[in-house]
Give the backbone structure.
Amino acid sequence: MSFSRKSLGIPYAVFLLIFVAAPLIVLVFYAFTNGQGQFTMHNLSSFFSDPNTLGTLFYSFAIACVTTAVCLLLAYPVAYILAMSTIPAKSVVLMLFVLPMWINFSLRITALKEILNVLEGNLAMHPFLNAVIGMTYDFLPFMILPLFTTISKLDGALREAAMDLGADSLRTFLQITLPLSVPGIISGVSMVFLPAMTNYVVLDMLYNSTYIMGSLIGSYFAAYNWHGGSMISLILLALICLFTLLTGGGEEETARGGALL
Amino acid sequence: MFNRHRRSLFAVLAAVLIPAAAAGSVLPARAAQEKPDRIVLRVCNWEEYIDLGDWDEEETIELPSGDIIGENNMVEDFEEWYEETYGTEVKVEYSTFGTNEDLYNTLTLGDVYDLVCPSEYMIMKLMAEDQLVPLSEDFFDESQENNFYIRGVSPYIRNIFETKGIGGEYWSKYAAGYMWGVTGIVYNPEEVTEEQASTWDILTNPDFERQVTIKDSVREAYFAAVGAIKSDLLTSEEFRGDPDYAQRLEDEMNDTSPEMIAQVQDYLKRVKDNVYSFETDAGKADMITGKVVANYQWSGDAVYTMDQADEDDFELAFAVPEESTDIYFDGWVMLKRGIGNDPARQHAAEAFINFVSRPDNAIRNMYYIGYTSVLSGGDDPRIFEYADYNYGAEEDEEDVVDYDLSYFFADGDGAGEEEDEYVISAPADQVNRQLSAAYPPEDVIDRSCIMVYFNEEQNALINQMWINVRCFSIREVPVWGWLLALLAAAAIAAMAAQRFKLLKASK
């Protein structure tokens, strides 16, 4: 067998097969079988007929939507200012935004817990707010990076042309910069929205006792209901696929932003 | 008492793996010279549930009958002891689990262990599924010097193991106890009175809105809810005075009728709206830092919490609900899948149980873990001495009470024992503190009962109930919630449209 550059991909292909494809097959098998190993659609139908699973889906969506919106509103101005500025050590400033990611996740949330405790008094009074703050804190860099990358790559000549033709700076922003930065927004949104649907550890550590998708799946497994839990995982996977397809996540910007982390 | 319950899993792994690697490199040569029989014993225990040794000099426990110090990992000590005593080399592959359900899941997925240490209800499940190997007759022979378990187990615990069972078989046939305790409420006496803390009603008490935590455990929550709902019955004179009280209590507390489950669901929804959280791990720390004023907890963890708070000069107390409490055990059982028909392996497994039940080792484990061993020590006085060492009053202390532990330590035949042999004179406040959590007083024991293993049908109902409590129901979504959802859907659709526009443009 002659050595080709493609051979370099073999280790990853093996990894993919063992740790992605094989579990997925197991997942699908469990999702469509019952305790006796027979084929059944029961798990699927019970997902859509149970007010709890649907409610949890809604609740997870709500947390993810609000988190994403807050992240976007916080991150866009920062990314914009940073990308437009002419300071010499831009990448150092950018690093500062990524810096929190270098600290262990549970340590960060524990610290956040103490800060929130001082600010809010009794933490348990605001479970939804806590979840949103915790997730925003955690996922904000994922939003800043792709936005920054996209905005810095914009051609300045377009803005100058708009200004020359008499547009004021607000109009230039709304009609030139914002539309052109949409790919960055899409990357950022999908990088924040998807993990925010399932990251139940944040809720757990910040005293929100309501289940989201991640904890619901966990509770099915703890009750030995592998089949129901697998079905929920599968449906979540399908939703994520749909979302990614619709919004076109996983494009070049994502990869660029991700490489910095 | 200094407790190290929260050591990292890494330390456990390192302690187990490093000697394992070292042993692995030495063994082949030796095995070739001598007999080839080297037993491999696969043990799976709770995380941080055995002494890993490496104590400082000043941690030495000085008892009247001798000093005790943990120098080495107890698993290594066992390997050494077994080879010295029985002349056969044994290699323990020690691993850990986090919850009973995790353990069961790993067993279902095909992991093979010889000896595991689940809680009583999981033992009952494994018994019902015929997964266990009975303990041998030899194990119960009190005349053998090395049978530390049967020679030292508390008569009180032994009686429970010999009278409780499932499917016509008693626990004692398969299981040897390790640690035990009750559930109760750790509270801050400055904020909560003893009376308020001594009932499950504290979980729904509006005076403590969002100030009490409860374990994120469906079984504990269910038990507490049943007790709170039946509070009037459970505390009535008539019920307490019933000659068949113990059995009736157990039946009432293990009520899984659909009506009861429905009531529990309503009650737990109220609990969820009133408590600080269902905590998985934060309860102890939140108690110590004062974020909450009470925490429904296992007694072993309660001892740990109070010890930690003491170090910060912050006093906490412990109370057991007046209605009832569940008494829990973790015990060693041997698995058929692991042991098979290998008598040598079974011998090593039983020897392991006996080794950790040797009084000095039991004390090392108690010190390290913070839970209370099921052993009273039999003829060996050290375990009682250790209780006295921990909780007994100093000689010059004034406010002292007598705390009778005969129910646990006395062997019942009365021969050769003085009446007050097992009475600790303790500082008065210990009656509501560590001592009462480590060794509950007799009135608590009287109103305690076990929580049995529920069958699959009951479990399915209870788990569904739990999901109903914990999940946000789609029916609760307010109109504005739906409107916002529409808005979000529109945003996603807009993004999708944008994407397709971009795609078209690029073509």
Summary: Chain B is about 45% helix and 15% strand. Residues 479-506 of chain B form the longest helix (28 residues).
